[in-house]
């Protein structure tokens, strides 16, 4: 495995900054940040956090920011000061934000001004003593900053007109901290680096404790996998696009951190759902790398202005966090010339477990590649016994990237980490003949129809190959006759209409009878996580609430 010499992530960041100095490290909304600026600005801020705010190594600091230039500065500052990063989704409701701040015990928070109203409603009931407020454009050149912030505040009305009392402003902190130096710290690999909260799809979110060693190990594993790609990166020339939120582990660690170390400039996209603004950014640069998710790839491929972009430098496209549909992979390769390289992981594994290697033929393999180096994967039945070769089972993983446990939740930790160090992922998988992992589905999303296991991923992949379907999701609901019945939700392509009988006939041709959806419903959009992963749970809750406990769903 690639040997990363640094003992902590602060030094890992600094080594990249010192190596690539004057080259552009990040670009966003027309502004930029060089590696040298990232090093000096983060050093100043780290000193201010320790000296002016009095924070001590191990204290938690929440970061409630989207993909803006302030984020890498804050991230590097917290880590080099020996503090712990608590990433917070800026779209959180007051309930979700209150839980995460109270659970983590964060003493300070960096927050986007747009989210100040939500923070104000809960901050008094948390341990937070210091609030640093920034606006989207605070790191842009002065004239552009004033223009963008004016539009956001008074035209789009995205920023509250009042001020959060007792806070620090980002620009004032930048001036006050200039020339600061953090006190020496002895942060080591066993020390906590992140409380990275899980999505909370089955209840209150839990803080996965990721140490500096966990993350450094996963970075080294990813470096070995992508050695050829990273060796070819040319600082000052190559641009990698990060549209996925970097407060999410999948974009943060194998994305931002790995590409930073290679010297690539990273184009940060604050809001990828605004496709018009996103495409304006893409037209300004010839991109070398792109990290996305199935729903984003699909949405971009519907745009002619995306198809018209210059992809001559695009050498890498990566995805993870949600299934990649075959039809999307094939069209992406045809349009861009870049094969989407699939990875699999979880927040609790820092996050990557397995990934496809470069040079695989075809557009789509249906697998997430072999396990990374120094990563042990086994498949188990409900009793924890190894399953027979070729059979599906729950994926268990053991390796240096597996988290230390859940923050202050020993019982929940014991439920998922075995005595011999395996993490029980809750995903159903199988190995193919070459040793690659095929993710069948989430254990909790499996549907039981007349005693047969049905995996939504399979049905959704089949349905999205139907010419009129853009997105699909299926869930199981209680049914007196079959135990559970399949309800399918679809989003149509622009201008398309649905012949439900024709779609069911198509499904009968592609799927065994018990896998054919009982009911089909057209939606304008499907509920998604902040990353873009479709939330089956929300759909399941809706249909169960609308279904009589005795009748079960009927054919639509």
Comma- or semicolon-separated keywords:
single chain; alpha/beta; Rossmann fold; Luciferase, domain 3; eight-stranded mixed β-sheet; globular
Strand-helix topology:
Layout: H1 9-20, E1 24-28, E2 31-34, H2 35-51, E3 60-64, H3 70-80, E4 84-87, H4 94-104, E5 108-112, H5 116-122, E6 130-134, H6 142-155, E7 168-169, H7 170-177, E8 192-197, E9 207-211, H8 212-225, H9 227-231, E10 239-242, H10 249-262, E11 265-268, H11 275-284, E12 289-292, H12 294-301, H13 304-307, E13 316-319, H14 326-336, E14 340-345, E15 352-355, E16 376-380, E17 393-398, E18 405-406, H15 410-416, E19 423-431, E20 437-442, E21 447-449, E22 452-454, H16 456-463, E23 469-479, E24 483-492, H17 500-510, E25 519-522, H18 536-546
Parallel strand pairs: 1-11, 3-4, 3-5, 4-8, 5-6, 6-7, 10-11, 10-12, 12-13, 13-14, 24-25
Antiparallel strand pairs: 1-2, 8-9, 9-18, 14-15, 16-17, 17-19, 19-20, 21-22, 23-24
Helix pairs in contact: 1-2, 1-3, 1-10, 2-3, 2-7, 4-5, 8-10, 12-14
Quick structural summary:
The protein is of the alpha/beta class. The protein is built from 18 helices and 25 strands. α1 (9-20) runs antiparallel to α2, α1 (9-20) packs across α3 and α2 crosses α7.
CATH topology of one domain: Rossmann fold
Mean pLDDT: 91
N-to-C CA distance: 54 Å
What percentage of amino acids are in beta strands? Answer: 15-25%
Outline: globular
User: What profile does the largest beta sheet have?
Assistant: 8 strands, mixed
Radius of gyration: 24 Å
Count of beta strands: 25
Unreliable sequence segments = 548-556
Question: What is the structural class?
Answer: alpha/beta
What is the CATH first-level class name of one domain? Answer: Alpha Beta
Give the proportion of residues in helices: 25-40%
Number of H- or I-type helical stretches: 18
């Amino acid at each position: 495995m690639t040997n990363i010499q640094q003992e902590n992530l602060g030094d890992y960041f600094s080594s990249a900054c010192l190596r690539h100095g004057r080259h552009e490290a990040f670009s966003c909304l027309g502004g930029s940040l060089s590696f040298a600026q990232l090093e000096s600005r983060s050093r100043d801020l780290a000193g201010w956090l320790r000296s002016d705010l009095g924070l001590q190594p191990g204290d938690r600091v929440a970061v409630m920011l989207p993909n803006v230039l302030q984020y890498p500065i804050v991230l590097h500052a917290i880590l080099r000061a020996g503090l712990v990063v608590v990433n917070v989704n800026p779209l959180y409701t007051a309930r979700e934000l209150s839980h995460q701040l109270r659970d983590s015990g964060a003493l300070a928070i960096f927050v986007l001004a747009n989210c100040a109203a939500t923070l104000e409603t809960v901050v008094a009931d948390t341990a937070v003593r210091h609030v640093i407020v920034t606006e989207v454009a605070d790191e842009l050149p002065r004239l552009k900053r004033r223009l963008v912030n004016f539009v956001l505040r008074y035209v789009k009305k995205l920023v509250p007109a009042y001020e959060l009392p007792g806070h620090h402003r980002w620009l004032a902190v930048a001036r006050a901290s200039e020339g600061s130096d953090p006190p020496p710290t002895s942060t080591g690999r066993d020390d906590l680096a992140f409380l990275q909260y899980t999505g909370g799809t089955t209840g209150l979110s839990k803080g996965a404790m990721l140490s500096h060693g966990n993350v450094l190990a996963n970075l080294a594993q990813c470096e070995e996998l992508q050695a050829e790609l990273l060796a070819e990166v040319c600082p000052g020339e190559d641009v990698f696009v990060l549209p996925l939120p970097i407060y999410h582990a999948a974009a943060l660690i194998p994305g931002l951190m790995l590409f930073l170390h290679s010297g690539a400039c990273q184009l940060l996209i604050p809001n990828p759902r605004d496709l018009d603004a996103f495409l304006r950014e893409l037209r300004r640069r010839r991109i070398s790398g792109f990290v996305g998710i199935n729903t984003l790839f699909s949405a971009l491929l519907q745009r002619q202005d995306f198809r018209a972009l210059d992809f001559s430098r695009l050498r890498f496209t990566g995805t993870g966090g949600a299934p990649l549909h075959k039809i999307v992979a094939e069209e992406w390769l045809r349009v861009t010339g870049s094969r989407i390289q699939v990875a699999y992981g979880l927040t609790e594994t820092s996050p990557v477990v397995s990934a496809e290697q470069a040079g695989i033929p075809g557009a789509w393999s249906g697998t997430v590649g072999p396990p990374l180096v120094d990563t042990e994967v086994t498949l188990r039945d409900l009793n924890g016994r190894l399953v027979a070769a070729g059979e599906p089972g729950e994926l268990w993983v053991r390796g240096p990237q597996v988290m230390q446990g859940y923050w202050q939740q020993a019982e929940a930790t014991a439920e998922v980490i075995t005595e011999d160090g395996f993490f029980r992922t809750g995903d159903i998988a199988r190995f193919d003949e070459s040793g690659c992992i095929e993710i069948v589905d989430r254990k909790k999303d499996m549907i039981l129809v007349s005693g047969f296991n049905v995996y939504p991923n399979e049905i959704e992949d089949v349905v999205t190959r139907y010419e009129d379907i853009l997105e699909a999701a299926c869930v199981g609901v209680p049914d007196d006759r079959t135990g559970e019945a399949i309800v399918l939700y679809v989003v149509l392509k622009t201008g398309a209409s649905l012949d439900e009988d024709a779609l069911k006939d198509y499904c009968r041709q592609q799927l065994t009878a018990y896998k054919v959806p009982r009911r089909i419903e057209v939606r304008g959009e499907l509920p998604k996580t902040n990353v873009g992963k479709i939330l089956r749970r929300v759909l399941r809750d809706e249909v169960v609430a609308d279904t009589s406990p005795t009748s079960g769903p009927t054919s639509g």
